[in-house]
Amino acid sequence: MMNKRGFASDNNAGVHPSILEAIEKANNGHVIAYGDDDYTENAISRLKMEFGDDCDIYFVFIGTAANVLGLSAATKPYNAVICPDTAHIHADECGAPEKFTGCKLLPVSTPDGKLSVELIQQHMHGFGFEHHVQPRVISLTQSTELGTVYTVDEIRPITTYAHEHGLVVHMDGARISNAAASIGCGFNEMTGAAGVDILSFGGTKNGMMYGEAVVFFNKEMGNDFRYRRKQGMQLASKMRYIAVQFEAFLEDELWRKNALHANKMALKLYDAVRTIPGVEITQKVESNAVFARIPEKIISLLQEQYFFYIWDEVTSEVRWMCSFDTTGEDIEGFAALLRKII
What is the DSSP secondary structure assignment for residue 251, as one 8-state letter? Predict the structure, then answer.
């Protein structure tokens, strides 16, 4: 298969050299398995410097597992999770949240991937009625699947409303680094300090090899999570290799440097293509994604040289993702080809 550089996903990028170096340094001798090692202890301590001491943190392999297991800790099978219709848990996790939590997802149509109290209210009914699923969780994605970003002032009204009505707030933070870099804040400011109860904290899309951290700001919900993680097949035996990635990720704010670069490249791509006739930008470029409608007939021609995904085949909308290793040359070449074909 041809190895094509392109704009399909930040998952397609490689691993940052500092992350690889950390893994190599940890690959020395024997340590206790399953997280009972100094590497894991140090990584959790380092994460608590970001999120505060009053939280519990557990490492898992992948984002879907972080989301599903985190949601399962807050729900019972008769509960429901309110989320945008573009949310990863709704559109891209193959029904795993429903299968493994037993809950119903209640999707909300949004123009920009972001929830608001007003949009959430359409599903806030049926409480105490045994024929109706009971809303329990509001799930936010930061940054959203459409590349937009919640400000802290947009998150706080949602968490306040949720808690006033006995609901909890989960955040899918697969691209939380890009969001924090975009609005210039730290991780805790937009999560625990803003009222989020459970966070799926990811780094794979921003230079890590693999691994996620499930962060419980509401520690009561994480009381039995060690058993959920094991039963969910996410307890890593050689956990040190996940742990050291997070340490390197946080060291000297590598996460922010990587995310700022990816975001900058997305803006550069936006500037390079927005004036090309036939290109219609469909979302604000606030993180590392550019969404656009382009003539359907040219998509396959572009994809011969630059791999990317079609977001909506009906409207001919495409998604172009930038990564920590996207170069100016990548963007210049792509924009030149797009202009030439059109």
Answer: G
